[in-house]
Amino acid sequence: MAAEAAIDLPRALPASRPANLIEQTLAVGRRSVVRTSRQRALLIFPIIFPLILFAINGSALSAATRIPGFPTDNYRDFLIAMPFIQGAMFVSISAGVDLARDIEGGFFNRLAMTPLRGEALLMGQLGGALLLGVIQAIVYLLVGVATGVTLVTGLAGAIVLLALSILISFAFASLGALLALRFGTGEAVQGIFPLLFVTLFLSSASLPRDLIKASWFREVATYNPVSYLIEALRSLVITGWDAEALALGFGFTILLLVITLTLSQRSMRTRLARR
Amino acid sequence: MMRFFNVARGVAWRSIHNTLVNPAILVPSLIFPLFFLIAFAGGLSRIGDVPNFNYPPGYTSFQFVFVFLQSAAFGGVFTGFAVARDFDSGFARRLLLSAPRRSGIIAGYTIGALLRWALTGAVVTVAALIAGMNVDGSGIDLFGLLGLGVALNLVSALWACGVAMFLRTEQAGALIQMPVFVLLFLAPVYVPLSLLTGWIHDVARLNPVTPVLEAGRGLLAGSPVKVAIAFAALAGTGLLMAVFARRGLSAAERAG
Question: Which of A129, A211, B145, B235 is the most exposed place for a label (fewest CB within 10 A)?
């Protein structure tokens, strides 16, 4: 039912003038947020699953802190970055599937007959994913702190961590949108999910890169941008204000966002071709 | 009895045929264990250097046993997804109408799960050998390890069939998968039980998957431990799951 929700433009705007880009974006975004908030299963699973893995691996891998040179004596401090990235990957699937459902259900075709701009539709569609990203980030941080994770950068670090994790979620959501626009089916978007998880596990998520024994794995983790997203979040917890780690983390996130939004925008033009 | 075997054979053939001809089903069941093997045996191999970590064949072998048994369990789980899909598509209802001995349906799905895992288990073993896994156990020990995998696959398939038949929707997927996933990861996955500390040690000590994993690792290392306990735990759980799956089938029959 949520997928059939209409964009409520007439109530929001005077009938005399056409909606501008921001108003259009807000209208589509409102629909996206309402749809996401109505799908409670969609909200709960992406939040719970990374926390289960965090709880289990945080204890099961605590012996790793006895490896000489390990950067902290609390493995949870080291691992807390992982749920944020896992959550962002779930957000990408959620955003992609929602968009694909609109394409499959013919909603996009109906919108093509309206003056709605592609940019507004794309950004608005990501509104629900953004909401999910914000909720997840806050929950992960609170659970982390409640289970003994301490941020050496304090409150300011927590704010930066939240900002970066929300930005990462948004970048992954736009990746999901790109997949949906390219393939047009939810099944195809979900099929990509295992690949996203591979990038997480082939990163420095479980051990610091300099402590990874297998040289080929260390190489893969070094060339894997996901390592830098994790290391930026992690630096705020265990290292302090590490300008290089933060620059790489924000840099790769913004790069992913720019690339996926640009390509999505192109695909959107094709999807909304007004013939 | 003949009718039972005919139904079981038909369902098993369909199950394995659908797996082999549909890449969307086949690829994840092959890729996931491989990727766990790479991530754990490759990425975490330094864990083998932790003081008091003592497993002579090495960390790749240590992780291989977990991934091998995990692939067995997930062979059953994926079959549960197929059962749920059959109910969603309406095929299972037609099957219930046409099968002369309905208990053969459960047997067919579990045989399908075993055949599916035979492929995955073989791929994981070859990959581990290529990655340099050491095998210190004898032929009989390895046969024991294979037996553990077969029994775990059976238990997991019966659980998955039971849940899928009780709920009869693809949305049962999370409920089929999560308990298996959590039980597996609450065992000593990364280090031996003696190196676990805190709550995870207490939980792992009570977890029935722990003796199965320890027995498997002992068999691969050629120094068997807890083998009888592991098989007894699997036999007991298997009996319970067989009753559960049969009751699931009865619920599906009543639902029509």
Answer: B235
